[in-house]
Amino acid sequence: MLKKIRVSAFKSILNQEVSLGIMNVFIGANGSGKSNFIEAIGVLSAAAAGRVDDEALQRRGIRLGTPRLYKSAFEEKIPPHIFFEAQTDTAKYAVSLNNPLENPKPAWQYQTEELLCNQETIVNRGPHREIKNKEQGLAALKLVESDENSEVALLINLLRNFAVYTPNTPVLRGIIPDQQTREPIGLSGGRLAEALKELQSLVSKNEFIEEAFDDILSLIDWINAFDTTSNVNAILSSSIARPKNVIRFTDRFMKGHYNHLTAYDASEGALYILFCAVLTLSPNSPYCLAIDNLDQTLNPRLALNLTRLLCQWIIEGDDKRQLLVTVHNPAVLDGLALQDDRIRLFTVDRNNRGHTEINRVTITEEILALSHKKGWPLSRLWVMGHLGGVPNV
Amino acid sequence: MSDYRIGLVVEGITDRIVIESALNKIFADHTYTLIQLQPELSDGLNKGGFGSTGSGWGGVYQWCRQMVNMDITLQENLFLQKFDIIIIHLDADVAEKNYQQANIANPVKNDLPCVQPCPPASHTIQALEQVVLGWLSLKEQLPEPFVMCIPSKCTEAWVAIALYGKSDQNILVDIECHSNIENYLAQKPARERVIRNRSGRMKKITQKYSEKSGQITSQWDYITQKCHQAERFTQHIVAMR
Q: Using CB atoms within 10 A of its CB, is residue B45 exposed (0-12), middle (13-18) or buried (19+)?
């Protein structure tokens, strides 16, 4: 698990260090820099995989930009390179990258690169070291000779498989293809039916998944079943492109034979729930991933309960998965058991100079007691501004 | 992390811009994060249930009352302890209003209007400060980290000094008692106008206030020389830095 992330001179982030938990929720005004932070991990991910170019960034769900956009452009003196660092308990990977503002190159060049394990240096590259190919990361090459269970390999693989997922309704419905397909599911939600089918095949073998499927059903109150099918003639218009598999929902209010809906017709909230469930439950999902705008299209009560389930699934799951999400719906906060140190809430604000600042909301026993006693849930405190992470409007 | 975390209870967006401009000067080399504190919507289903929260002096009143209704003293309110400074802004012309104008049906005390002859502006300010203390159910003074910010008669006095004080000395005469400063600003040529008068309704143009923010910051020392309330506000903040 990634314990600490440090980012410098990247977009609105001048210099920030964030200690992560297993479930990490970022709240903040639009434009405060939430997405910039998770994208920073995406750039680090590409660096860990050996090359930082548009293709590598796009594969990870990062918005493409020119060096002018990627490098912080504040009034004060800014380091010339963008810098990223990730740490686990025992290993650390840090990299600084450069690309000229004028006539940028297709790939960013590694200026410094450092890979450490238990204080021992595995890779150390400085700007003056004689390396001809500055666009190739050394840590990725080093991985070839590392045991796959070594601390170093675990960190680099954790990073390189990281991606930012941003579900969108037409892709979830299967109307348009996903630009970034992946196993188990594309970055925008493509392949949802296949992913669900694969997960469903585990239900009979895995009680945890079986219970999770029951939990999913409890979130979608208008259905009494869901599955996948390849036989879609009766439930999908012939004018719609036929995928191999479709998700089939059984509407509990409609009479038999007329009560099946596909993802094309179902409420988008149901699709977003399945999307999140697949990402957190599938054994093929990355061990560290981010979902941008987790709560979009969800009713507040649904957002709250989905958050509770996500926390439960990733904490109790076997895969030791780590999740970073950005949200805007206050109800999400009430689904977070922040007294558990593994679940962390961060506010993202911009200070008077425009720098993004990320602060963990720590809930002490006193605050918790006061909140219970006075009936002030986090959602209310957030909306009133007491936590930070709100727009000044 | 910023050097300071500042909470701001403020009448409106343009007031926030002016106060931020002042803070940029007062804090000079320090960084701060400003977070606007707002009341929850409390006017029931009026305006379809989703009126703008925290806008106008009625919003400041509501915020104060909600703090009291949390049933925790301000000093013991752990939810506010992350702030190094909490500024409560109210224009002095609120002293001329009554509660009905802000749709406040059952005020704590029927202590508005409380306006006093001006000059001096300080008598009205003192009366209004007592009113705000009453909103917060306090008897004496605001505890730390609270600071009152009461421009007289309104924030636009500070804007007028920054933009026109040096070129139009007339505007400086008893400016803290000038009841028509918004109108003065609205009569400026269109390209420099920060307030538009549309059939008697004053519209403060957010974009213009933002554009002038740097000028207000650079002129802040001058503003404090001409405006006692600006000077007082600065001193209060400096004392808490």
A: exposed
Q: How far is B78 from chain A (nearest CA, A)?
A: 6
Q: Facing residues of A246 across strands?
A: A229
Question: Which pLDDT score is estimated for B42?
Answer: 58
pLDDT digits 0-9 by tens, A329-384: 999 999 999 999 999 999 999 999 999 999 999 988 888 888 888 888 899 889 98
Q: Which residue has the higher pLDDT, A389 or A257?
A: A389
Q: Walk across the sheet containing B4-9 and list its strands.
A: B32-36, B4-9, B85-89, B146-149
The mean pLDDT of B146-160, rounded to a whole number, is 98
pLDDT at A239 over 80: no
C-alpha dist (Å) from residue A391 to A217, B13, B38, B142: 35, 11, 11, 26
Strands B4-9 vs B32-36: parallel, antiparallel or unpaired: parallel
Q: Where are the domains of chain B?
A: 4-155+226-240
Place of tokens 């009026």: B46
Amino acid letter, residue B127: A
Strands A322-327 and A23-28: parallel
Q: Name the residue facing B79 among A351, A383, A386 (closest C-beta).
A: A386
What would the two tokens of residue B132 be?
């705000």
Q: Which among A351, A374, A388 has the least Cβ separation from residue B32?
A: A351
The SS3 call for residue B120 is coil
Query: How far away is chain A from the Cα of B2, in angstroms, using its nearest Cα?
Result: 7
pLDDT tens figures, A56-105 = 999 999 999 899 999 998 988 888 899 999 999 999 999 999 999 999 99
Interface predicted TM-score (ipTM) of this complex, two decimals: 0.86
Which helix (H) or strand (E) element contains residue B201? strand B201-204
Does the CA dihedral A345-A350-A352-A355 come out positive or negative? Answer: positive
Which residues, 6+ apart, have CB-to-CB distance to A176 below 8 Å? A170
Cα–Cα distance measured from residue A343 to residue A339, given in angstroms and rounded to the nearest whole number: 8
Domains in chain A, start-ordered, CATH in brackets?
1-163+286-393 (3.40.50.300), 179-284 (no CATH)
Of B118, B119, B127, nearest to B90 (Cα)? Answer: B127
Inter-chain contacts counted by CB atoms under 8 A, chains A and B: 68
Of B15, B110, B100, the closest CA to residue B56 belongs to: B15
DSSP A217-283: HHH-TTEEEEEEES--TTTS-TTS---S-EEEEEESSSPTTS-EEETTTS-HHHHHHHHHHHHHH-T
pTM score, two decimals?
0.92
Mean pLDDT for the stretch of residues B75-91: 93
